[in-house]
Amino acid sequence: MISTRGRYAVRVMLDLAENNIDSCIPLKEIAARQDISKKYLEIIVKDLVLAGLVVGASGKGGGYRLARRPEEISIGEILEHTEGPLAPVACLAPDAASCPRAGACETLPLWAEYDRLTHDFFYGRRLSDLLPEKR
Amino acid sequence: MISTRGRYAVRVMLDLAENNIDSCIPLKEIAARQDISKKYLEIIVKDLVLAGLVVGASGKGGGYRLARRPEEISIGEILEHTEGPLAPVACLAPDAASCPRAGACETLPLWAEYDRLTHDFFYGRRLSDLLPEKR
DNA sequence: TTATTTACCTATCTTGTCAATAGGTTTTTG
DNA sequence: CAAAAACCTATTGACAAGATAGGTAAATAA
């Protein structure tokens, strides 16, 4: 289940993509436009900055802007940096202590296949695909 | 993220499918074979009984058996009855108070598409597809 | 230079779910 | 009638989700 963190992150990124891509946009504006608590967004945007997806500028006239063009940002990236791994089961997460049953597990291939499906889906979509002109 | 409930449920169903499909198998045996706490499995199997996926028989010589043949049971059914809806985001869950933004939401179509993908994947797989002779 | 605006940082809180445990009651058969 | 099984209710501990609160540092416009 994709939580609000990931969903809000995508909405913030999309908001940045839609509103004057070159200048900085203060979080206050985004929060108002998206109707999300600014304080909560701060936590989420921090992850995006750390991931190198957006750039923040302090001080008056500051705000955030995309670090790359929307065509070069995949939804998968946004989700993994805010939600953690997209892996659908714990056994497939990168940090998973490998399960002792893994070798003989009859269900693991099923989860692995779904994992691939999920991964391909979200890394195959770019932020630009969500822009109004594309839809 | 698919939790242990759903994953254990699939393993129990598969265990039932592999071990003498017509007679009853006590949970004690399944728990030992799958190396899962019997007490925890009780909770999970209860959901499977309520869903009409397995049939329980009390008393000595009792146990559980599949209610239908493995070819007629989809993985999706098993998961939805033990985990709840497969919906990847809250806005798409059946009981969701419909979001006021839903009509204009630019990200909803993305989640909806992923929802379809997930649904089709798990309802397209049957328990029989996981049996060793199939793999 | 100073007030203002902004990002940035740390901590706390509440609620709910996950994963499991515990101890009992009822049902059925050998 | 005794054993073995399902079935039932309650509780627990740990952790994450979804925020909220209050402050510090940086940069600019006046």
Protein architecture, described:
Chain A is mainly alpha-helical. The first copy, chain A, has a single domain (4-134), classed as Winged helix-like DNA-binding domain superfamily/Winged helix DNA-binding domain (Arc Repressor Mutant, subunit A). Chain A has 5 helices and 2 strands. The first copy, chain A, has a two-stranded antiparallel sheet. In chain A, helix 4 (75-83) crosses helix 5. The model of chain A has no long low-confidence stretch (mean pLDDT 94). The A-B interface holds A 1-2, 7, 10-11, 14, 35, 75, 87-90, 101, 106-107, 109-111, 113-114, 117-118, 121-122, 125, 130, 132, 135 and B 1-2, 7, 10-11, 14, 35, 75, 87-90, 101, 106-107, 109-111, 113-114, 117-118, 121-122, 125, 130, 132, 135. Chain A binds a DNA duplex (30 and 30 nucleotides) through helix 3.
Task: Map the helices and strands.
Two copies of one chain form a homodimer.
Chain A: H1 4-18, H2 27-34, H3 38-50, E1 54-57, E2 63-66, H4 75-83, H5 108-124
Antiparallel strand pairs in A: 1-2
Helix pairs in contact in A: 1-2, 1-3, 1-4, 4-5
Chain A binds a DNA duplex (30 and 30 nucleotides) through residues 3-5, 24, 26-28, 37, 39-40, 42-43, 45-46, 49, 56-64.
Short description:
With 135 residues, chain A is mainly alpha-helical.
In the residues of chain A, how many domains can be counted?
1
Just name the CATH architecture of chain A.
Orthogonal Bundle
Distance between the termini of chain A: 25 Å
CATH topology of chain A: Arc Repressor Mutant, subunit A
Strand order of the largest sheet of chain A: 1-2
Q: Helical region count of chain A?
A: 5
Low-confidence stretches of chain A: none
Structural shape of chain A: elongated
In total, how many beta strands of chain A?
2
- Largest interface (C-beta under 8 Å): A-B, 28 and 28 residues
Q: What is the CATH H-level superfamily of chain A?
A: Winged helix-like DNA-binding domain superfamily/Winged helix DNA-binding domain
Classification by helices and strands of chain A: mainly alpha
**CATH class type of chain A:** Mainly Alpha
Largest sheet of chain A: 2 strands, antiparallel
> Averaged pLDDT of chain A, please?
94
Give the proportion of residues in helices of chain A.
40-55%
Please write the string of helix (H) and strand (E) elements of chain A: HHHEEHH
User: Cα-atom Rg of chain A, whole angstroms?
Assistant: 17 Å
- Oligomer kind: homodimer
Strand content of chain A: 5-15%
